[in-house]
Amino acid sequence: MKQKFLLNLAYDGTFFHGWQVQKNVATIQQVIESALKKIFKVKTNLIASGRTDAGVHAINQYAHFSAKTRMTPEQIVKALNSLLPDSIYIKKCKKVEANFHSRFDASERIYLYKICKKFSPFIRNYAVFYQKEKLDISLLNKASKFLLGEHDFEVFAKDTSHLCHCVCEVRKAKWQEKEDQYLFYISANRFLHNMVRRLLGTYIRINNERLAEDYFLKILKMQDLDMIGTTAPAHGLYLYDVKY
């Protein structure tokens, strides 16, 4: 009898073409499914809480699969990590109910974006170097309050043709300033493709052009693509956690 397992994993997305399996390129899903096939001797589908784009990292990603096995979750973790590259690490594994779904059962997703104040070759793939102007954290946090709640975020999405609607409930949007970095955390029930990166680019525009703190509210009302900022680079973005 098959059992369903939930993986908690982290990965460095630098040299992968995102999560989803694609032809002729390395992806996170493809690499892990290949390892699962070696362990269970059959093709094993892995379904994540959500897809991440090329270059995007994950501190806590979650994905489920089903397998007919006597292996314990701890043994599965050990077996997978012995086969996976160092850029992917399985943190935990646990059995879940047969009706569990890592994507549809997720109640909240949290993303983190990192901006470094000084360029370093050692973190160039893990934070975006921003050299133009100091970020006004007070202004950006004031602007953030206009994102909270349920809104139609279609203008911040790259592709919406496959969606029934673009309404997301943002529950938290907060900036923090550290000695060498700016950190942005955002959580919502769902995110659209490129939504976080387009929001980041718009934050930068608000900062650089000293726009009104309610600028996001105006964009959400008008849904004018010309009002948003340039899409921020992928390598500063992390899937921070997922809540079930």
Q: In short, what is this structure?
A:
It contains 5 helices and 10 strands. With 244 residues, it is an alpha+beta fold.
Tell me what you see in this structure.
Helix 1 packs across helix 2. The protein has 2 domains: 94 residues, 2-Layer Sandwich (Alpha-Beta Plaits), CATH 3.30.70.580; 136 residues, Pseudouridine synthase I, catalytic domain, C-terminal subdomain (Alpha-Beta Plaits, 2-Layer Sandwich). A hairpin with an 8-residue loop joins strand 2 and strand 3. Strands 1, 2, 3, 4, 5, 6, 7, 8, 9 and 10 form a 10-stranded mixed sheet that branches. It is built from 5 helices and 10 strands. With 244 residues, the protein is α+β, with helices and mostly antiparallel strands.
Strand content: 25-35%
Report Rg: 19 Å
User: How many domains make up the 3D coordinates?
Assistant: 2
Note the main sheet: 10 strands, mixed
Number of helices: 5
**CATH domain class of the largest domain:** Alpha Beta
| Beta-strand segment tally | 10
How much helix is in the residues?
10-25%
Cα separation of the termini: 25 Å
Structural class: alpha+beta
Uncertain residue segments: none
In round numbers, the mean pLDDT is 95
Main features:
244 residues, alpha+beta, Alpha-Beta Plaits, 2 domains, ten-stranded mixed β-sheet, 10 strands, 23% helix
Draw up the topology in text:
Elements (H helix, E strand, L loop, with lengths): L2 E9 L16 H13 L6 E2 L8 E11 L5 H11 L4 E9 L11 E9 L11 E2 L7 H8 L4 E4 L14 E11 L3 E8 L6 H15 L5 H8 L14 E7 L1
Parallel strand pairs: 3-10, 5-6
Antiparallel strand pairs: 1-3, 1-4, 2-3, 5-9, 5-10, 7-8, 8-9
Helix pairs in contact: 1-2
